[in-house]
Specification:
Blueprint (H helix, E strand, L loop, with lengths): L1 H48 L3 H28 L2 H18 L6 H17 L3 H11 L4 H18 L1 H7 L6 H21 L31 H10 L3 H19 L1 H11 L4 H26 L4 H18 L7 H13 L5 H46 L3 H32 L1
Helix pairs in contact: 1-2, 1-4, 1-5, 1-6, 1-8, 1-11, 2-3, 2-4, 2-5, 2-9, 2-15, 3-4, 3-8, 5-6, 5-15, 6-12, 6-15, 7-12, 9-15, 10-11, 10-15, 10-16, 11-12, 12-14, 12-15, 13-15, 13-16, 15-16
Amino acid sequence: MSRMLHRTGIVSSRVHIVLIVGVTFFALLVSAGLRATPGVLMMPLQLNFGWDRATISFAAAIGIFLYGLVGPFAAAFMMSFGIRRTMLAGLMLMAVSTFASLWMRVPWQYVLSWGVMSGIGSGAVASVLGAAVVNRWFATRQGLIMGLLSASTATGSLIFLPFLAWLSNQGAWRPVVMAVSLACLILVPIVALVLPEHPGDIGTRRFGERPDSAPPASPKQARTAGLAISVLLSAARRPVFWLLFGTFFVCGLTTNGLVGTHMIAFCGDHGVAPVAAAGLLSTMGFFDLFGTTASGWLTDRYNPRVLLIVYYGLRGLSLMALPFLSFDTMSLGVFAVFYGLDWIATVPPTVKLANEAFGEQEAPIVFGWIQTGHQLGAAFAAFGAGVIREQSGTYLPAFLAAGVMGVIAAGVLLLTLRQGQAAKLQAA
């Protein structure tokens, strides 16, 4: 009888952990979907208000930048105030800011609502949330779960785009805004009801943690943003931090900054309809779900630096090839599948390297700062590509430059890998 009750308790706790992962997955999905929506709004806003692409891209860049900058502070608040409270605050701010944009009339109001306010809100529900949940709820299979949660950010930023593009038919933008606001609002009561703060709150341990394992160290308590700053100052003294920060800058530049923000407009320059172009991004999001989850599985088994070399190298080469495709259904479809598999496959190995270098306790905050590099790159590409298109009339230089950056990132990682191997041989 006692054995049966014990098994029942294990099954119940595992079901609850699955629910926690599911809720986190969808929160990350909606947050990333919000950040991708300016790509759909670009042409409708230009049509309705007469704003140029550089102005619209500036608001997108601000939102993307804050999405990353808020990350480490959000991670610190998760440690101090709790994961659930931080998620709820972020979701509410996302819902309010996007809903308020229904009354905007001038560009600064778009920058404030979709740039500043929604950037702060979505930053509280970003990749650092996945890292915090994984470290708090999982002792094993961290790479796999982080891969799954990371995939949700690309899936959310891409898979809803055909629906949003359909809502923007005939240049309409308000239905798009209302759909995003409603999605954020629906998640608020679900997070409040389903997500406990600690495994002990439901009478369980971290997944894969043995009964005789020592309990995890108590987190540093900090009621201010000082914890995020102190962790940054400590991490910044180590070269591995700048390696991960710099390569993640390239990751953001080559994904949601360039492709996520400008792919629909880029395809439009080649005669591809917005709904069809959004379908390509949706295909990328669908295949990213498999690519990034598989990357997590590989990260649990292989050297994460080797994986990153492969990911960045292939991504850079594919971006350099894209402008020279015929932009027919076949060529764009092949690109979408390939690029989707590699979209943010970089996240699980990057998180693992951060965990190894800085420890599981501080790694979510460190990863938050690394994520800031990602969003700096994304903001640079989102705004820079818009300016290049406005000044030259073509996106060609932007895509070629992004491809070169991807190859350079792979080369730097290869160099550090060889240096590390040489150091081990000398030590032996």
